[in-house]
Design goal:
The structure is a single chain. The protein has helices at residues 17-26, 56-59, 64-80, 102-115, 132-141, 156-169, 186-194, 228-233, 260-271, 287-301, 311-314, 321-334; strands at residues 2-11, 14-15, 31-32, 41-42, 91-96, 147-150, 175-182, 219-227, 240-249, 278-281, 306-309, 336-337, 352-353, 358-359, 364-371, 375-382. With 387 residues, the protein is an alpha/beta fold. It folds into 2 domains: 2-234, Thiolase/Chalcone synthase (Peroxisomal Thiolase, Chain A, domain 1, 3-Layer(aba) Sandwich), CATH 3.40.47; 243-383, Thiolase/Chalcone synthase (Peroxisomal Thiolase, Chain A, domain 1, 3-Layer(aba) Sandwich). Strand 10, helix 10 and strand 11 (306-309) form a beta-alpha-beta unit. The radius of gyration is 20 Å and the shape is globular. The protein starts with a strand and ends in a 5-residue tail after the last strand.
């Protein structure tokens, strides 16, 4: 059995677990800033320059994507009190990202095309590869266990967590740092604008009948995973355990989601004979995704289970699977869940949408991960006290 013993979050609410939890209960993290496009809002982290956490000399050479990842990893490492317990060769680092550092890639190749190879800035190049964040994290803590990076659009985070669990179950690592990180940049807005998936009204409304597209966000979350036997032996605080995973896939266009039936299959595969007390939905204000997910939840779980959405707090972050798990466990600790900010009138009525912050006794929590391109992963969490 695999447990989570450390959580670190960087979000539009700020750095740390407390900033995230208190902020999420009070308001949406979506804010207004200069995007360079008609859509003027997203989940942007203001005044993020963590020189009190990362030395300024190192910070200047890192992309925002890497900075977010490393700060969340440092927060999780401290939270877990894992320092010195395991051999560094037995601790793995698994990173999830949707796009890595779009800004560094844009700057590097723009310079290459305009000035040629002799004039472009070589310092930018390491930050163009998606596995740079896992390198920074490994170097920071001197870790040389298994190391890899996942990038599969909206389920990269869920994939990374599943892979980490398998490393631990197979005895290939004694602990694993799992990090999900994505940055918010003008090139990202440009690409989403071309694809016509942004909200023209600059509002993010998961499940709402008036939703008209997504608003991207940025942030990072890191989790420390360990075998329960080892974590208990060292007296670690165990936030919760990974109970089940559910999978499904379907051949669809790269920008489309699977059918509601395929999503329902993944939910059933994860919950099995259990009944979750909360669903952290994948819904991100997409016209297609939100409708299909609502239908899948209705088919599998009925109309009673409470539902909230991380995207309504942070904007759509591709690697958000890691943050969904981290946030779910924080909500469980406090027995309170934030609402789906922006939801007023659901398209599919009669489900357990949370409209106002609600106190809930959470034993089992379902994390839905549904990605465009045809892949779905759901995760069932439960409290250590329920194991």
């Amino acid at each position: 059995m695999i447990g989570i013993t450390g959580i670190g979050i960087v979000s539009p609410y700020g750095i740390g677990k407390e900033a995230f939890t208190s902020g999420a209960l009070a308001r949406s993290g979506i804010n207004e800033f200069n995007t360079g496009h008609e859509t003027k809002r997203g989940g942007f982290i203001r005044d993020f320059y963590p020189k009190h956490i990362i030395p300024p000399m190192k910070l200047r050479k890192m992309s925002r994507y890497s900075q977010l990842a490393l700060v969340s990893a440092i927060e999780a490492w401290k939270d877990s009190s894992i320092q010195g317990y395991y051999k560094t060769s037995d601790i793995g680092v698994i990173v999830a990202t949707g796009l890595g550092s779009v800004s560094s890639t844009d700057l590097f190749y723009d310079g290459l095309l305009e000035k040629g190879p002799d004039e472009t800035n070589p310092i930018l190049f390491p930050e163009t590869v998606q596995n740079i964040a896992s390198a920074h994290i490994s170097i920071e803590f001197g870790l040389n266990g298994p190391n890899t990076t996942f990038s599969q659009a909206g389920i990269a985070g869920e994939q990374a967590i599943f892979y980490a669990r398998e490393l631990l179950n197979d005895g290939l690592a004694d602990a694993v740092m799992v990090t999900g990180s994505d940055e918010l940049t003008e090139p990202l807005f440009e690409g989403m604008n071309i694809l016509r998936i942004l909200s023209k009204g600059s509002y993010l409304r998961p499940f709402d009948i008036k939703r008209d597209g997504i608003l991207p966000g940025e942030g990072a979350c890191s989790l420390i995973l360990e075998r329960i036997t080892d974590a208990s032996k060292r007296g670690a605080h165990i936030y919760g355990v990974l109970e089940n995973f559910g999978f499904s896939t379907e051949a669809v266009d790269r920008f489309n989601y699977t059918s509601a039936e395929s999503m329902a299959y993944a939910i059933k595969d994860a919950v099995r004979d259990f009944s979750p007390d909360l669903v952290i939905a994948s819904a991100n204000s997409s016209i297609e995704l939100d409708l299909k997910e609502a239908l899948a939840i209705k088919e599998t779980l009925g109309d009673i289970v409470p539902i909230t959405s991380l995207s309504s707090l942070t904007g759509f972050i591709m690697s958000s699977g890691v943050m969904k798990v981290g946030s779910a466990l924080l909500f469980k600790e406090r027995s309170i869940v934030p609402p789906i900010w922006g939801l007023e009138k659901p398209e599919i009525e009669g489900l357990g949408y949370i409209f106002e912050a609600r106190e809930l006794k959470l034993r089992k929590i379902l994390i839905n991960g549904f990605s465009h391109g045809g892949s779905n992963i759901c995760i069932l969490l439960k409290g250590w006290d329920e194991a």
